[in-house]
Amino acid sequence: MVLVDAMKRADSVDPKVYAPFLAKTQYKGVTANIAFTPKGELTAPAVTLYHYPANARVALN
Q1: Which of 1, 16, 39, 58 lies 20 to 30 Å from 22, alpha-carbon distance?
Q2: Mind spelling out the 3-state secondary structure of 6-54?
């Protein structure tokens, strides 16, 4: 829903075009507020994925 809204405002499905629109999005969701960094990443993700190279916990980028 948030991503589609950014695509509509940008009038494009190209990530390079809609990313700035996504970065400006602030949406008050049911369980949390949704906002993005200028790179299009969530400012407060609900889930973080990790991998364990050499038994060390490292967050996936």
Answers
A1: 58
A2: HHHHHCCCCHHHHHHHHHCCEEECCCCEEEECCCCCECCCCCCCEECHH
Q: In the block, which residue shows the tokens 């700035």?
A: 20
Report the chain (61 residues): mean pLDDT per 10 consecutive residues: 92 94 88 83 88 94 79
Q: What are phi and psi of 26, to 5 degrees?
A: -135, 115
**How much is the pLDDT for 50?**
96
Predicted pLDDT at 19: 86
**Full domain range(s) for residue 43:** 2-59
Query: How many structural domains is the chain composed of?
Result: 1
The whole-angstrom separation of Cα 31 and Cα 10 is 26
